[in-house]
Design brief:
By secondary structure, the chain is an alpha/beta fold. It has 8 helices and 8 strands. Helix content is 28%, strand content 15%. GO terms for molecular function: phosphatase activity.
């Protein structure tokens, strides 16, 4: 059973699914049994240019909106660091990880690059002696997915966005920060956002521990300004209000309950746009979300 769930690129929600760990010994020692990582892209070319921009698309050989060489290096070094940081938990077995990316090319490319170092094979997994790369299964969500691409599919959200864009303070000072909005949304949901844009490859890890028959969750924030340097990071513990660093699972679930809405009820009717997709259609993550809700229902709240 997968014990490691990885969301790369434009990620927006803390999602989980039922897991089983048979090898956890009842020794009274806290033991990491499940890990989830949410990460942003490395540096990428602009999505578009100003009409009179002195730079042209030729100045971005990788293509508009795609990862630059710097961005790829940032993703690769971040993967190396995470492998080192979680060396006691992550192995070279690609079957232990479930990796997802948004449909954006920069996200899928970033995930491929990060996984190359995160799952660099040890000798037993090498298919070519000395070649420190192995294929891993990566999944990317279709554009219709409501978890990675909700912001342009939600009628209610678009209406509120129009109100903000037409307000005087916003018109006087407008800043377009589309990248990293999902990670920022998670921090906001945790009531821990400082209002600043997360740096390239910023990562939140959710660690689930088991001690005897009790589960706790610890959240860490990795936000090194220059991940391409390959330096070790001292992550910042993300402490939820009313919780210690190792938060009881029931308290963790209770904290997030108010910010996990019924998506279709909140967003209203689907957007009447010929390019829009069917918001009624289910996606891969829908089932994982349903499993999490069903799994947490019996917990003492």
């Amino acid at each position: 059973m997968w014990r490691f769930f990885f969301l790369a690129g434009l990620t927006c929600l803390f999602l989980d699914h039922v897991f089983t760990v048979d090898d956890v010994k009842k020794s009274g020692k806290r033991e990491l049994v499940y890990l989830q990582l949410l990460t942003t892209n490395g540096f990428h070319a602009p999505l578009s240019l100003y009409p009179n921009d002195e730079n042209t698309e030729d100045d971005w050989p990788e293509g508009m909106g795609l990862l630059t060489k710097l961005g790829k290096l940032q993703q690769y070094e971040m993967g190396k660091f995470l492998r080192k940081f979680y060396h006691h938990f992550i192995t070279s077995d690609p079957g232990e990880v479930d990796a997802f990316s948004s449909f954006e090319d920069r996200s899928t490319i970033g995930l491929v690059t990060l996984m190359a170092s995160l799952y660099a094979p040890t000798e037993e997994w090498e298919f070519l002696p000395g070649f420190k790369w192995q294929p891993t299964v990566l999944c990317y969500m279709e554009k219709k997915d409501i978890f990675f691409s909700y912001k342009d599919r939600c009628t209610t959200l678009l209406k509120e966005k129009r109100k903000i864009l037409s307000s005087r303070p916003f018109r006087d000072h407008m800043r377009k920060d589309k990248h990293d909005w999902n990670l920022a949304a998670v921090l906001s949901a945790m009531r821990l956002s400082n209002g600043f844009r997360p740096p390239p490859c910023a990562t939140i890890s959710f660690e689930m521990y088991k001690q005897d028959e009790e589960y706790t969750v610890r959240a860490l924030f990795f936000n090194l300004t220059n991940p391409e340097m390959g330096a070790d990071q001292d992550p910042h513990p993300l402490l939820l209000e009313g919780c210690t660093e190792y938060c009881p699972l029931a308290s963790f679930v209770r904290f997030f309950a108010p910010v996990i809405p019924e998506y279709k009820k909140l967003c209203g009717k689907k957007i009447k746009d010929p390019e829009d997709v069917d918001m009624e259609a289910e996606t891969t993550l829908i089932h994982m979300y349903a499993d999490l809700k069903a799994w947490t229902t019996p917990l003492p709240m």
